[in-house]
Amino acid sequence: MEEFLRGEEVSFLVFSDGSRVVPMISVQDHKRLGDGDTGPNTGGMGTVAPSTNMSLDVHKQIMQEIILPTIKGLDAEGRRYQGVLYAGLMMTDAGPRVLEYNARFGDPETQVIMARMKSDLVPVLKGVADGQLGDVKMEWTKEPAICVVLAAGGYPGEVETGKEVKGLPALKGVPDLMVFHAATALRDGKVVTVGGRVLGVTATGQNLDAAVQRAYDAVDKIHFEGMQYRKDI
Ligand code: GLY
């Protein structure tokens, strides 16, 4: 038996060198396949950063009551944790509750995190690996970011693969836009689909509306047979 948790999900990722913890920006994933959170659960159909459910106070509460005790607890058990810790949280009326932990980055959380990261990632990862995050401070752009996942027909069930992805060249050089390849391959000079979540179309903007507009303008230019995506990220 488990407590039923009602609320919106937030993905909260941190870097840990075993004792020092540096949080990343908060992200909201959209797990259901269909608009309005309908249909089957997926690995994630799109993300927004920052999460619209995160105040400074709640951020502090999550660090103090969830993340830091977890890192400390692992250390106390002789399992010093060096890496990325990703807490999947449910923001309930009674406060944030942990749904799951992942010992990795999130997908498609990482697309929006990278789009907003101003700091160089390498020294941070080295600090994590060496157990010396020291006084590393991450810098983030103020512009919100959004990622829309383009998934193959059939996803999250059995997927159709080998479909040609068209429209990508038109997006080359578009400012504040990145199209991350997730399940594609290059065959005979053509980009084809090879899995469920095919592309992560990621954009930043001066405000959330501008980021959303930019991402969906790009989505409109991309096509492959069976392509499915949410229109409400
Ligand atoms: N987006 C969910 C995950 O990476 O587990």
Strand and helix map with partners:
Elements: E1 8-17, E2 21-23, E3 28-29, E4 32-34, E5 38-41, E6 46-49, H1 56-76, E7 82-92, E8 95-102, H2 109-116, H3 121-130, E9 145-151, E10 177-181, E11 184-187, E12 190-193, E13 197-204, H4 208-221
Antiparallel strand pairs: 1-2, 1-7, 3-6, 4-5, 6-9, 7-8, 9-13, 10-13, 11-12
Bound molecules: glycine (GLY).
Number of strands: 13
Bound molecules: glycine
Arithmetic mean of pLDDT = 96
Q: Note poorly predicted spans.
A: none
Strand percentage: 25-35%
Instruction: Strand order, main sheet: write it out.
Output: 3-6-9-13-10
Class based on secondary structure composition and strand pairing: alpha+beta
Describe the global form: globular
Task: Report Rg.
Answer: 18 Å
Q: Note the total helix count.
A: 4
What composes the largest sheet? 5 strands, antiparallel
Distance between the termini: 32 Å
Helix-strand sequence: EEEEEEHEEHHEEEEEH
Helix content percent band: 10-25%
Summarize the structure in short.
This protein has 233 residues and is α+β, with helices and mostly antiparallel strands.
Describe it for me?
Helices cover 23% and strands 31% of the residues. By secondary structure, it is α+β, with helices and mostly antiparallel strands. The model has no long low-confidence stretch (mean pLDDT 96). The structure holds glycine. Residues 29, 43-44, 102, 106-107, 109 line the site of glycine. Glycine (GLY) binds next to loops.
